[in-house]
Amino acid sequence: LEVPTSQLINQNSRKSIPLYASSGTVIFTSDEIIADVENILNLGYTAYKMRVGYQEWDTDIKRVENARNIFGNNDLMVDAIMGTLRPAWSANKAISRAKDLIDFNLRWLEEPVHPENIKGLAEVCHSELVPIAAGEAYSGSGEYQSILDLQAVDILQFDSTHSGGMLVCIELAKKSEAMRLSSALHVWGSAVAIAANVQVALAEPSIDILEIPMVSLELTDKMWMEPPIIKDGIWH
């Protein structure tokens, strides 16, 4: 039909979506975080996510502090990647870590416990220290329903490439909105993953923001039918 997928889903789909730059790898030093944030600012982004949890906590705090100092009042997110790192934080340890992050005015703290620990996730969220985001690790409707039933997040995340597909993600966004939760699209992969999630974000206005991975994949550069138009942290 030669129209964007978003318009097939919703004739009144929007024409742009806010983005956040996903970078700040867990092994970056404090100085490397400064350089990373400066690069993100130069690219025009006003939202940035970095990883913590691998280095000594005092070092991680310094890394977050540097990111905040350089990024100013822009949106800063911190991902604890507890679905990846071992051992994962317990709920109590995550709450303790969240207390240390309060002063940095984070948009969210992501995946503060292992994805299987949904009750622990709810405990961290209910501490109301910093907004909690999670969802990228789940692929079944039952898992997402458990998160919603327990009100285990402030921001529900999903990805059309492994959370059940595009229409399932739109339904999850609608459920989040009905519960007065925010929602955000996780993206990590090639042009296919990015493009699919962009169309979901454009089709569903309740979705707040879309992740753009700051990794260079030669394959992705060759896959675009039309190169994306990204300006000042907005996908057009």
What does it look like?
This protein has nine helices and ten strands. Strands 1-2-3-4-5-6-7-8 form an eight-stranded parallel barrel, surrounded by five helices. By secondary structure, the protein is of the alpha/beta class. The longest helix is centred in the N-terminal third of the chain and has 15 residues. Helix content is 40%, strand content 17%. Helix 7 links the parallel strand 6 and strand 7.
Low-confidence stretches are none
Principal-axes geometry comes out as globular
Distance between the termini: 20 Å
Question: Strands of the biggest beta sheet: in what spatial order?
Answer: 1-2-3-4-5-6-7-8
The oligomeric state of the chains shown is single chain
Describe the structure in brief:
The protein is α/β, with parallel strands linked by helices. The protein has helices at 5-9, 30-42, 57-71, 91-101, 118-126, 141-149, 166-178, 191-203, 218-223; strands at residues 17-22, 47-51, 75-79, 108-110, 132-134, 155-158, 182-185, 209-213, 230-231, 234-235.
Helix/strand layout:
Blueprint: H1 5-9, E1 17-22, H2 30-42, E2 47-51, H3 57-71, E3 75-79, H4 91-101, E4 108-110, H5 118-126, E5 132-134, H6 141-149, E6 155-158, H7 166-178, E7 182-185, H8 191-203, E8 209-213, H9 218-223, E9 230-231, E10 234-235
Parallel strand pairs: 1-2, 1-8, 2-3, 3-4, 4-5, 5-6, 6-7, 7-8
Antiparallel strand pairs: 1-10, 9-10
Helix pairs in contact: 2-3, 4-5, 7-8
